[in-house]
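Tutorial sheet, problem 5. The two components below are modelled jointly, 520 residues in total.
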Amino acid sequence: MLNIHIREKAFHGNTVIADLNIAAAQGEIVALVGPSGAGKSTLLQMIAGLDAAFDGTIRINSEAEHDVGIMFQEARLMPWLTVLDNVMLVANTDTPDTRRHAETLLTQVGIGHAIQAYPGQLSGGMAKRVALARAFMYNPALLLMDEPFSSLDAPAAEGLRQLLLSLHQQTTSTILYVTHDLKEAVCIADRILLLSESPMTVLHDVPVTLPRPRHVFADNVTQTSQSLYARFGALLQHPATVGQVVKT
Amino acid sequence: MISSGLVQKHIKPVSDTVQPAKGSGHTPFMVRCLSLSILLVIWQMSVVWFEPALLPSPLAVFRNLGVAIQSGELLHHLGITLQRVAISFVLAMALGILLGLVMGHFRRVDLWLDGILTLALNIPALVTIILCLMWFGLNEFSAILAVIINKAPNVAVTLREGAKAIDTNLMNVARAYRLSVFRTFTKVYLPQLYPYLLASARSGLALVWKIVLVVELIGCSDGVGFQLSTFFQFFDITSILAYTLAFAAVIYFIEGAVLRPWERKVSGWRQC
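Model answer (structure tokens):
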């Protein structure tokens, strides 16, 4: 469904991504794990069509109405639109049916009572829930998620991860989920791609076979992430990644 | 809501985190009426210290205003002035917005035009008015052109800042979700410019009024400015104040019927 081959992506003469190949099947959740600053966000921007200055090809084979949607690190809601209108923003048509669908999604993410509120009235976690509803309203063949819950505290982030997985079960979207936290990747993904930095490329492709549902606080997730860290932690190089995994 | 039992233990109910909208507070209309009434009282009290020819009482001015309205003279000249204000305001705003946005988005254009804009901003209004009247004659075109030359640079400077302040993160949301050009413009781009457009319109209206009056005073044979010039020659302060009151009434009407409702509509979300 998804085939990415990036020969080179350079910034000011420095190669940041080289010979990177990623493939994903329909409905698969693939976590991209690598040190902060490796170029993961840049890769997502390239896939989303926000950065076209690279040498390579990105192919998405899908019959879905929309190819790619993205959820950024920040909620990025339009402050002048209500919660409902923020979700309706990405809808192709404004009909009673699409409005009902948007309201249903907002209820599913727990914002059903605040659809007429403005983003300025929401907490950070609530804003992320609205952004999640917006992403699923768009219902793309490929959903890109760029450390979407990294700014939240652990319980709030876990709540949103579970919401994401529940919403994902209702769609056929493929998800590329960027994180620098191996434990989060284990919790959410079918496969984990471990990435290097300078230049970024795929070092290891690790399937995650733990039964679902998975919770980030559960023992099997902790053990698996520790085992992965023991095998690959040195390759991830960046101190931030090492610290986060060891702490668990 | 879809979530596991484990998660529900930790998540704060969302209803607790919605911030209530701020209250409307005092009634601004009443406060404005009160402050204007106080000004009227001070005016009435000051009358005793001056000769009536120098400072007529509010009653005398209102009586004069009534006569001028009844004769149709005031409405005729006010109508002509309003027409000039409307035409030059719309053209100056359109030109200023276009120029400001192009300068804000294209650095090279900004570099080329910045010096000219600074010059245009600092040339005294009187100079451009006199030059326009001398170059193009005492006609409608010169009058409106003089106003546009004076006002458009102010709008351009404000809108240039607005264009520079456009949030690229929000524009990237529009791009990533493949919003149409029209939807991107109306739902993402334009709302970011509203505060700048509103500020330009407010200051623009005030400036255009003043410049139109000066243009009419110097080079027109009708309009409020021309009338004021006639009253000046006859030292008729009562009529000058009567026309000023009529003027103020129109400004309050535009402010109350157009600008404030527009502001409430486009900036209502800021009050939440």
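Marking note: Helices of chain A lie at 40-48, 83-88, 96-108, 124-138, 154-169, 182-188, 219-236, 239-247. Full credit if you identified this.
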